[in-house]
Specification:
The structure holds 2 protein chains of 2 kinds.
Chain A (H helix, E strand, L loop, with lengths): L2 H20 L3 H23 L18 H6 L5 H32 L13
Helix pairs in contact in A: 1-2, 2-4
Chain B lengths: L2 H5 L4 H19 L1 H27 L4 E4 L14 E4 L1 H24 L5 H23 L3 H19 L6 H32 L4 H8 L5 H18 L7 H8 L2 H11 L1 H14 L4 H24 L4 H22 L2 H32 L10 H4 L1 H15 L5 H14 L3 H27 L14 H19 L1 H17 L1 H10 L16 H23 L7 H6 L4 H21 L1
Helix pairs in contact in B: 2-3, 2-5, 3-4, 3-5, 4-5, 4-11, 4-15, 4-20, 4-21, 5-6, 5-11, 6-7, 7-9, 7-10, 7-25, 8-22, 9-12, 9-25, 10-11, 10-14, 11-15, 12-14, 12-22, 13-14, 13-19, 14-15, 14-19, 15-17, 15-18, 15-20, 15-21, 17-19, 17-20, 18-20, 19-23, 21-22
């Protein structure tokens, strides 16, 4: 466990949440969501790490190791890295849809202020 | 084993609508109707596959298919597993059958849209339905998250389908922000669970969790409640739900309310009863609190709405609250009542939203204050709407009578606060819907409507199927209980047996005990005791609109995306810390 990674994840997450809760600009809200997701990626990659481990690649093992010893022993957890990859892909798709909506909102309302975009209330 | 022949077909139930979703935009270029016809065929194939395993599943056996033949070795499963258990299958069957009805209704309400629009619309609807069916069938928590995201992405597209309407954009943006945060919670919860136990398959997670929960597991559970609670539209995560329903076309609102929000309940139920079942105590209290709060707030907000679809959407918040509270009570009887109510809610809420859609289609009106006298102009819609309202209110012989009776009876012992909350919510629900029925259908309206269109065959068929379902599920409670509700609840009461069955092919799920005495005088008294004050309250609100007591609650629903996100984050913090610190 590398403590600084977890601290970074927490700080980036808090920054993202802070942005979403306090910024009125829709683009900044989208950025806040992206920050939140990035914190998730850092967290996952950090949780996948084990002390002194290498990358979970079994081809061309480093000197002094064989493929078998790598598979048994000290590699970072590939599943968590995989989940992070899946999340990156989903994040890209969602951000694209969000930005498209923001563009359309800007065209319709001529404003990016969340306060102007609240016709539905109560 | 003879089961495997059927089991191998299970993925087809998901693949068929996805294939349809790919074909629909292509066929839409030729003709919009062709795209819808193709979608209907895809949903029919999916429903047939699900029905083919229904006999075995409702008989108490879990039908398991390890995708790509990645079988578990010594209790470790690397691949994704689909398992048709009675609860998940009920959920999937509802999605397939009601999804087909909604596509049929779309053909008549939106049939005059262009081919490209209809193609895209059918594609998104099928993607959402495929995600719902797959969520019911999957026995892998990461896979559940993926389907959650597929459903979310499809729902964004459907919410913003009429891009030229500014409110559709606004609703889509709010939905995206809140659902995205929810997806992040679920995602982190699953990653934390995997990092702690090295397991993603539900059977494996359950085995690995053991009797002693670590605080990381409780954090994960709190995040799951917050994440899936957002999908279910529970208070305080509900900001997106009324907006999305107001802006979307009729069949889409019906799809969201009748089927998609249930995904949240399914997710919470799976985690609470199957994987994390060993630390029930605190999470059950949390669920009753969140559920009771949603039931009351949703009903109160519904009472003061002027937009018909928005009113129905707030009622959905209330109904989801009832479901989650019943889940939190956790006795066999309340779980049976919850499953029963889930099926009923899908039927009557779909029916009501389709009625609202039909009214918009016929008159172009959405506001109750503009409508009136529709009973004379649209007798058929009136009958359908009244059936739906009677079902929600629990008037016998409608379906709501049975499920509400079961839940009420289960809550009576040992949950006095929840009992008061649910009774209050029920009274206000009756009032809200009675008010809507009066204002839209039975109030005198002096000037005639400018234009009023005739209902088409597709609409009549959809109404008949759903209203027939409402009556049938209420008139035959014994049959439904024995062959649907109790087996479906067995997945929840015997979560351990389900988890084992996923890893070890089969094993029988024992049926929970739940009986319903149809003409129990106490039960009739309770129903009468909620309907009568409900009607009086409705009369009062009609006479004096905008009650002052409700102003603060309405003022909290500011419509600002920042505010709604704040409520949701606070709710998530309470969920997580509530579980970890108690």
């Amino acid at each position: 466990m590398i403590l600084v990674n977890y601290v970074v994840a927490a700080v980036v997450f808090s920054l993202g949440v802070y942005t979403i809760l306090t910024r009125r600009n829709l683009l900044k809200i989208v950025m806040g969501l992206s920050l939140m997701e990035s914190a998730g990626y850092v967290l996952l990659i950090s949780m996948a790490y084990r002390r002194g481990s290498t990358a979970p690649v079994l081809l061309k093992p480093p000197p002094g190791e064989t493929e078998r010893s790598l598979a048994r022993g000290n590699v970072a957890d590939p599943v968590l890295q995989n989940i992070a990859l899946t999340a990156v892909v989903i994040g890209v798709a969602v951000t694209a849809v969000l930005l498209t909506t923001v563009v359309r909102v800007a065209q319709h309302y001529r404003s990016l202020d969340a306060d102007d975009v609240r016709g539905l209330r109560g | 084993m003879s089961l495997t022949g059927d089991a191998a077909l299970l993925p087809v139930a998901v693949v068929a609508p996805i294939t349809g979703a790919v074909l629909a935009p292509v066929l839409g270029r030729l003709s919009g109707r062709l795209a819808l016809a193709c979608s209907l065929v895809a949903m029919a194939v999916s429903a047939l596959v699900l029905v083919s395993v229904a006999g075995t599943t409702y008989g108490g056996r879990v039908v398991v298919e390890h995708i790509g033949n990645w079988r578990p070795v010594h209790g470790t499963q690397l691949g994704v597993t689909f398992a048709a258990d009675p609860f998940g299958l009920t959920f999937a069957l509802l999605a397939a059958v009601i999804g087909a009805v909604l596509l049929l209704f779309t053909a008549s309400e939106l049939g005059d849209l262009g081919g490209r629009e209809l193609g895209g619309f059918a594609s998104l609807m099928q993607l959402l339905l495929a995600a719902l069916i797959a969520s019911g069938l999957t026995a892998d928590i990461l896979n559940l998250f993926v389907w959650f995201e597929v459903a979310a992405l499809a729902s964004y597209g459907l919410t913003a389908f009429f891009l030229e309407r500014p409110i559709a954009l606004e609703a889509a943006f709010k939905t995206m922000v809140l659902t995205n945060m929810a997806a992040f919670y679920v995602f982190v919860a699953i990653a934390v669970t995997y990092a702690g136990h090295g397991a993603l398959n539900v059977g494996q997670v359950r085995a690995a969790l053991g009797a002693d929960p670590r605080s990381a597991d409780l954090v994960a559970l709190g995040l799951v409640v917050a994440g899936f609670g957002t999908k279910a539209g529970l208070v305080p995560f509900h900001g997106w739900l009324p907006d999305a329903h107001t802006a979307a076309p009729g069949p889409v609102s019906a799809l969201f309310s009748g089927l998609m929000v249930n995904l949240g309940v399914l997710g919470i139920a799976r985690f609470v009863t199957v994987t994390h079942a060993l630390h029930r105590g605190q999470v059950m209290v949390l669920l009753t609190v969140v559920g009771g709060l949603s039931a009351v707030v949703g009903a109160l907000m519904a009472l003061v709405q002027d937009d018909l679809k928005r009113l129905l959407a707030y009622d959905t918040v209330s109904q989801m609250g009832v479901l989650v509270a019943a889940l939190g009570v956790g006795t066999p009887e309340s779980l049976t009542g919850m499953v029963y109510q889930l099926v009923n809610h899908a039927l009557f809420k779909t029916l009501l939203f389709l009625c609202a859609g039909a009214i918009v289609h016929a008159t172009g009106m959405t506001r109750l204050s503009e409508m009136g006298g529709l009973a004379r102009h649209r007798p058929l819609v009136t009958v359908a709407f009244v059936v739906g309202v009677a079902a929600i209110s629990g008037v016998p012989p409608m379906n709501g009578y049975v499920s509400l009776g079961l839940i009420h009876h289960a809550v009576e012992t040992g949950h006095p606060v929840l009992l008061v909350a649910l009774t209050l919510a029920q009274v206000v629900t009756v009032a809200a819907l009675a008010r809507a029925t009066y204002l839209a259908f039975f109030r005198r309206r002096d000037d005639d409507y400018d234009r009023i269109e005739k209902p088409s065959v597709g609409m009549v068929v959809s109404f008949a199927v759903l209203a027939g379902g409402c009556v049938a599920f209420g008139a035959l409670p014994g049959l439904v209980l024995d062959h649907l509700a109790r087996p479906a609840a067995s997945s929840l009461t015997a979560g351990g047996a389900y988890a084992r069955a996923v890893l070890h092919y089969g094993g029988r799920l024992p049926l929970p005990e739940a009986t319903f005495v149809y003409l129990d005088p106490m039960q009739l008294l309770v129903i009468g005791g909620t309907i009568l004050p409900g009607l009086l309250l409705a009369a009062r609100v009609v006479r004096h609109p905008g009650p002052r007591l409700m102003r603060p609650l309405q003022a909290l629903h500011t419509g600002g995306v920042n505010d709604y996100a704040t409520y949701a984050v606070l709710g998530a913090v309470v969920c997580v810390f509530g579980l970890v610190l108690t």
